[in-house]
């Protein structure tokens, strides 16, 4: 039976993904059936107050779309860019957004308290990389329940690690920040303050920046033609030219895949997951990404153990973070009932 | 009351560390009190039969030293070089040594069955890097119970990861092989088949090889004098010359510490442990190692979160593996009683 306003019993979880430019909400029931989703622009520059009230509106809208009301909510999960202090199972409302490059001006915001008060429901806050990984583990590319690591290849490289069905958080609550593994000694300066981070070489943003710099230098490429009419240089245009055989774009794409392949070897030896799930903008290239990364992973395969992870594309697209947040809210609720 | 032959009740665990050249056994009680330890040469080239019978003899000898007999044993743990198929809590005798560069000719040896039969007790088999990490977690540098990662810097780089009081094993039972993180693209060939592994740059073996190659090339160094009388070139001689101000040795040592520092950054972002424990031969240099590695870790510190791990020297010396194996045998026994 589909949950309905008529019964009013709590049967669903709502997941919200707070991005730098959009706000996505999904309604998912206990069995993982997605009942509704909706995306709106997020005005994060307007500060927490207006965004929190937008979140409340979005939750109501998406519930209405699923023919439900707030009484149907078991919990609400929020995926947000880190670093943050995530919710612990024992605490009803504890998670805070500490600060984030993608949320300018948001400093130490008690999001769980604020949103929980507005909606009168328990809020679970999670780093967006972790939430996306949990989403893929729950209902996406990793739903057989095996350990997985997810890399979200967007503006930067988000990441999350799921071991034994749990998000790995670590002693300082900030594990799985694999976009900041150092892959080039004294390499490119990263927004995090380090040099040579993976995300400076193998994100959609990095691919776009390298391509733009090459064109500016005057390197010969069909990309020049492709973007003449004002089309922006991004990872999609680079992929499209690379697919058509453009040498410069092939080289830029392959270098990103090389760094991902080497990173996957480190991930293999560190976590020994069954799968490494590739999501985010770059993953829209499908096998053009997965096959190249797998090639670079296999080129170096070691001989000591048969433990190569599978490189697989994400299964939930842009909703992974919101779905994962909904799942974590359910998991948190179960834990706090234990 | 000290456990004794008179009472005959099982009260202790015996840990054995099967190394490439030595066999170490320790007797530890439930509270972590070390009652006896003993080391003998291991003739691993003689094959499993003779080594297993040496293990039985050593267990009896170390029990006698602690005024105990076999009836006092709750369980026996064995730390062995991997890869292996470690014991699972549910299986009384399951662990096997699959193969190992350090145990030539040992192929798919059912060590737990064989040793368990001989001693009539439950055997727990664990990768030596994991066992050492668990030893440090239980009774050494990490005994406050926080997550830790241990690197054992010997001939190669062994490693183990302890999260929430458990050895991290991963989907393929081979997690935490951090000596095979790739730190130099297309770098030195490793015995594992990969190129550029950490252990080719930052193990006691790597330090010795680099120093020997430099001397052979005719580089000027006080090391030439130091080893003239037949003293071997090893990481201790390199440290001793570096401490005395020898430039070549300083450079070789610092490069190893640099690679360890960068590896610690990746470990920080991957696992977010409270501590990274450095053990093995190189760690005998004490603060001369720890301070340099910490320096290289801090040189790159990121600005997003206060989550720098502490770099600390191991606390249990050469017995960490055997002690950890004893601890894991106890932990396994508790789990199988659950």
Q: Tags for this entry?
A:
homodimer, 338 residues, alpha/beta, 5-stranded mixed sheet, 9 helices, 36% helix, disordered N terminus
Shape, per Cα inertia axes of chain A = globular
| Multimeric state | homodimer
Strand order of the largest sheet of chain A: 3-2-1-4-7
Biggest interface and residues each = A-B, 47 and 48 residues
In DSSP terms, counting alpha (H) and pi (I) runs of 4 or more, how many helices of chain A? Answer: 9
Largest sheet of chain A: 5 strands, mixed
How much helical structure, as a percent, in the residues of chain A? 25-40%
N- and C-termini, Cα separation of chain A: 26 Å
Instruction: Specify Rg of chain A, calculated over alpha carbons.
Output: 20 Å
What's the mean pLDDT score of chain A?
91
How many beta-strand runs of chain A?
12
Poorly predicted sequence stretches spanning 5 or more consecutive residues of chain A: 1-6
Order of helices and strands of chain A: EEEHEEEHEHEEEHHHHEHEH
């Amino acid at each position: 039976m589909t949950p309905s306003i008529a019964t009013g019993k709590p049967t669903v979880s709502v997941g919200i993904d707070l991005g730098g430019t959009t706000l996505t909400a999904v309604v998912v029931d206990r069995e993982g059936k997605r009942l509704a989703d909706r995306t709106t622009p997020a005005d994060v520059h307007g500060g927490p107050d207006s965004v929190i009230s937008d979140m409340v509106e979005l939750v109501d809208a998406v519930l209405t779309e699923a023919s439900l009301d707030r009484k149907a909510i078991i919990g609400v999960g929020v995926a947000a860019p880190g670093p943050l202090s995530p919710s612990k199972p024992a605490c009803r409302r504890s998670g805070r957004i500490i600060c984030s490059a993608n949320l300018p001006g948001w400093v130490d915001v008690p999001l769980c308290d604020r949103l929980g008060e507005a909606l009168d429901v328990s809020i679970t806050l999670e780093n967006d990389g972790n939430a996306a990984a949990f989403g893929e583990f729950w209902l996406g590319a990793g739903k057989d329940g095996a350990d997985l690591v997810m890399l979200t290849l967007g503006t930067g490289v988000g990441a999350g690690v799921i071991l034994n069905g749990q998000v790995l958080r670590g002693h300082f609550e900030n594990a799985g920040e694999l976009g900041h593994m150092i892959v080039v000694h004294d390499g490119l300066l990263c927004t995090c303050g380090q040099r040579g981070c993976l995300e400076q070489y193998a994100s959609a943003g990095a691919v776009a920046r390298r391509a733009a710099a090459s064109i500016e230098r005057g390197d010969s490429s069909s990309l020049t033609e492709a973007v003449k009419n004002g089309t922006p240089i991004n990872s999609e245009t680079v992929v499209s030219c690379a697919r058509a055989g453009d040498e410069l774009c092939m080289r830029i794409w392959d270098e990103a895949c090389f760094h991902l392949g080497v990173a996957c070897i480190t991930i293999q030896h560190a976590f020994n997951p069954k799968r490494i799930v590739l999501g985010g903008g770059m993953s829209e290239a499908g096998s053009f990404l997965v096959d190249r990364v797998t090639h670079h992973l296999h080129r170096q395969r070691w001989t000591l153990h048969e433990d190569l992870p599978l490189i697989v594309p994400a299964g939930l697209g842009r909703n992974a973070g919101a779905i994962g947040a909904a799942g974590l809210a359910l998991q948190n609720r179960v834990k706090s009932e234990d």
